[in-house]
Design goal:
This protein is α/β, with parallel strands linked by helices. It has a single domain, classed as Rossmann fold. Helix content is 59%, strand content 14%. The protein is built from 9 helices and 5 strands. Strands 2-3-1-4-5 form a 5-stranded parallel sheet, with helices on both faces. α2 crosses α3. The chain is globular. The structure holds BIS(adenosine)-5'-tetraphosphate. The site of BIS(adenosine)-5'-tetraphosphate (B4P) has 27 residues, from α1, α2, α3, α6 and α9.
């Protein structure tokens, strides 16, 4: 089993690189952002709650996200492992993931931290907002998402360093170069 956490600020390339990883390593992919956007599209109760929170650039409550993750994990019947994209985003989520995997006789093998300067994140997300109309990709919400990232999510860097699972990835450059660095980090574990 190969379980990978792909980590980074909004717009750092988590979703983009996850697709390459899935293709090469044959893993299941859990993107909590994609799950929430699908719920918004369906118009479910969870979707209504998610839309209100995501439009402000805030995080969903930990218990809601942890329940989604457990249900998604159990829906994979035969699995070589999983890429966790956009989860964990808080320390309680990281602790819950550790416990959830341990209960299934598994563990996180590596945490990949995609490091991208803030001005580049802004450029990427504004461009995506213009191209796709994604509701949370506008300047005010992006600023909020970056603040939330610094206060609630970035402390996970130290948490994963202590676990001995941290791997720094330069997230600026061509998709191929970044993916090459990611493969080296995965294969070295
Ligand atoms: P996500 O869907 O996870 O959104 P994201 O952080 O913006 O990253 P994403 O993966 O989409 O973008 P990427 O960096 O690949 O979360 C959205 C919201 O959902 C959160 O704000 C929160 O409200 C909620 N949520 C999700 N998970 C949660 C959790 N665990 N707990 C609580 N709430 C949660 O790419 C961005 C752009 O950059 C793309 O357009 C891409 O084409 C481009 N790009 C990528 N790599 C590039 C490169 N090397 N060079 C140039 N451009 C590049």
């Amino acid at each position: 089993m190969l379980n990978i956490v792909i980590f980074g600020a909004p717009g750092s390339g988590k979703g983009t690189q996850s697709e390459f990883i899935v293709e090469k390593y044959g893993l299941n992919h859990i993107s909590t952002g994609d799950v929430l956007r699908a719920e918004i599209k369906k118009g479910s109760e969870l979707g209504k709650q998610a839309k209100e929170i995501m439009d402000k650039g805030q995080l969903l409550p930990d218990d809601v996200i942890i329940n989604i993750l457990a249900a998604t994990l159990d829906s994979f019947k035969e699995s070589k492992g999983c890429i966790f994209d956009g989860f964990p985003r808080t320390i309680p989520q990281a602790e819950a993931l550790k416990k959830m995997l341990a209960e299934r006789g598994q563990q996180v093998n590596v945490m990949l931290d995609l490091d991208v300067p803030e001005d580049e994140l802004m450029v990427r997300l504004i461009k995506r907002g213009q191209q796709t109309g994604r509701a949370d990709d506008n300047e005010a919400t992006i600023k909020n998402r970056l603040n939330v990232y610094h206060s609630q999510t970035q402390p996970l860097v130290e948490w994963y360093k202590k676990e001995g699972l941290y791997s720094h990835i330069q997230g600026l450059g061509s998709l191929e170069t970044i993916f090459g660095d990611i493969c080296k980090a995965i294969d070295g574990k």
